[in-house]
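Worked example 2:
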Amino acid sequence: MSNVPIPKKIDPRKLAERGIRIEGSTELKFMPNLASMLVDDQAEVWIDLQFDRDELKIRTVQGSAGGKLAMTCQRCLEPVEIDVEAKFNLAIAPTEEHANNLPKYYDPLIVEGDELELFPMVEEELILTLPIVPYHDDCSIQTSFGEEVTDTSTNTDSDKTNPFSVLAALKGGKLD
C-alpha cells in the first residue's frame, strides 16, 4: 500500500481513459455512516481500485476495499472484530438509461457530472458487506443473572401435583 493520500473527489471517466489505479488507506472519519455502525472509528480502511476500459470500450472500476472493523457482538454485547471486504465490478454510466443498457455482469455507477466523491461510494459498498448480526464464533453467553437458585425441596415424583389436573376437572364437568 502506498502512503499517497487518496483523493476525496475524482473524475472516473478520465481515470478510466488513463488506466489509473488508486491504492492506499484512509481513516473512518471520512466515512461517517459506516463509522456510526461500529464500536469505534479508530480503524483504517484500505482501498484498491483499478479504473480502465474493457473490450467493449466501457469505462469500468474494479477492485476491492476493506479492513478490520469493530462491531457489537449481538450475543454478549462486547466488541467483536469483523473482517470486511467489498468487491467492485462497476461500469460508469452518465444516466439511468445508459445504466440499463450495460452488460449484466457490471453494477452501474451513475456519474452525472464530471466528479465523483470516492469515499461515499466505497462507504456504501462496505456497509452492504457488514454482517446483519455480528457475533463471536466462540462467544459464551451469560444465561442467568443474579444469584444462582438451587432446588432444595425433597419432593419425589409421586408427591408432585399434576399441572393438568385442573383441565381434567374441567373436562369432567367438575369445578372446584
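The longest helix spans residues 118-129. The mean pLDDT is 83.
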